[in-house]
Predict the 3D structure of the following.
Amino acid sequence: MAEEQADTDELLRRSGQGDGQARQELLARQRPRLRQMIAVRLDRRLLARLDPSDVVQEVLMEAHQRLDDYLRRQPLPFFPWLRQIASQRLIKLHEHHHARKRQVTREQRHGFDLPDESWAALAERLVHSGTSPSKHLLRQEQRRRVRQALDRLGERDLEVLVLRYLEGLSPGEIAEVLAISEGAVKTRHTRALIRLQALLADEDEQP
């Protein structure tokens, strides 16, 4: 991660000096991470009309247009800045295509736009993450229980788990996205796992 950040910093420096090739590489190397973020968040009802790669391309085009301003100010580290553009693009896409259901859903209760597949993926990764609340969760039934517990978890806890386990952001990047300190991210992550463990234990005690 440190080496990757050093490479990004070098590309930013060269881009600021007018190196066109560095600008192209700076954007292109973030494509896989952007696609992951968009695939996690994109409503599956839009996939018949939209490909995540097309959304990534739109985000990169917008980032290219705004890059000079970013290089002058650098208000955020580079990937959190790109992710912010992608998040705004997804909000507009969902609103334009009227993708949200009228009835209350799990995503709406928590202010999330995650499709069911992403909730399933989050449960799967928590089951196999090796974290203390999930060491004993090994079977399909246990994954189902984790999904039910996630549905009862608060939005703040959910957001840090999604950023960490689905988008694969580092604690430092999560701190930039959430506008909190890296120490606060680690605390929130630990507390989210503890609360998840408590919800699972509560389910075990129910008749």
Notes: The chain has two domains: 2-96, 114-205.
